[in-house]
TrEMBL record:
UniProt keyword terms in alphabetical order: Glycosyltransferase, Metal-binding, Transferase
Annotated CDD domains: GT8_A4GalT_like
InterPro entries registered for this protein in UniProt: Glyco_trans_8, Glycosyltrans_8_dom-fam, Nucleotide-diphossugar_trans
Name assigned to this protein: Glycosyltransferase family 8 protein
GO MF annotation terms: glycosyltransferase activity; metal ion binding
Lineage, highest ranks first: Bacteria, Bacillati, Bacillota, Bacilli, Lactobacillales
KW Transport (keyword) present: no
A Pfam family the protein falls into: Glyco_transf_8
């Protein structure tokens, strides 16, 4: 299986936790190739390579050499340039790769995802989840803001299964840069807004309670499911926990859900030594 990340040095420890959680919840014989988009090159590349070797994964750093790439795109402390790189990942990945799973580095894998990885794209470019809530107000707001009325909703790009064969024929840097020039000042979640605006109608919807569980919304999941998606159900069925938002479970100030589970995997990952 091919895994894709896009990080800077600030997320070195977090990507190790994500990778360890994947390894712990995979079949022993499952092999992984890990690609990490980066600019500049991570100072921890050698250590990350050694960590992947310990997990019997192959590590492939992909350094974006063009310093002007996305130079006009809006950024902030929370949204650095690296968030955009996934949009053009197909330009930098080996051409023989037909599909790859992009993951944010604030994600835990708590069950096997091989079935999800082999999903039939049904001629779509991507497979992703929509974070639903008690109302559809957020979805309506985003559809108005981005003029994406024909899309099913607003997709979260933190877990993004990519149909690279189709993406190479459809997704262009020209379209992406033009969108940034035209709409960049209106972006709230920059890379995610671009994805939804340009390609929202070509994304296969997958259930977020399984493949992109927003840990902030534990009570909402339980309420809207009539109690079905409770903690035992999540532990048994959910594949990816996504620690969305500003507050993160590795921070001492984090007060939200599933912190203990994250710290458990983080502790185990820290015990891996070359």
């Amino acid at each position: 299986m091919n895994l894709l990340f896009s990080i800077d040095d600030h997320y070195f420890q977090q990507i190790k936790t994500t990778l360890w959680s994947i390894k712990q919840n995979s079949a022993p014989q499952q092999q992984y190739d890990v690609y990490v988009l980066q600019h500049p090159a991570l100072s921890s590349n050698q250590e990350l390579d050694q960590f992947c070797r310990q997990l019997q994964m192959r590590y492939f750093p992909i350094v974006i050499e063009d310093a002007q790439l996305f130079a006009q795109a809006p950024t902030s402390k929370r949204y650095p340039l690296t968030i955009y790189y996934r949009l053009l990942a197909h330009n930098y990945l080996p051409t023989n790769i037909q599909r790859i799973l992009y993951l944010d580095a604030d994600i835990l894998c708590i069950n096997d995802f091989s079935q999800f990885y082999q999903l039939d794209f049904q001629n779509n470019l991507y497979a992703a989840a929509i974070h639903s809530g008690l109302t559809d107000l957020t979805s309506v707001f985003n559809k108005v803001r981005l003029d994406t009325y024909e899309s099913e909703g607003y997709y979260n790009s933190g877990v993004l299964l990519m149909n690279l064969a189709a993406i190479r024929q459809t997704v262009t840097s020209q379209d992406i840069f033009q969108t940034i020039n035209n709409l960049g000042k209106f972006f709230l979640l920059p890379d995610q807004d671009i994805l939804n605006y340009l390609y929202g109608k070509q994304i296969l919807t997958v259930p977020d309670e399984l493949y992109n569980y927003d840990t902030r919304k534990k009570l909402i999941y339980e309420t809207t499911s009539g109690g079905q998606y409770n903690l035992p159900w999540v532990i048994q069925h959910t594949v990816f926990l996504h620690y969305c938002g500003k507050d993160k479970p590795w921070q001492h100030t984090y007060k939200s859900n599933f912190r203990e589970l994250y710290l458990h995997y983080q502790h185990q990952a820290q015990q891996i030594t070359p």
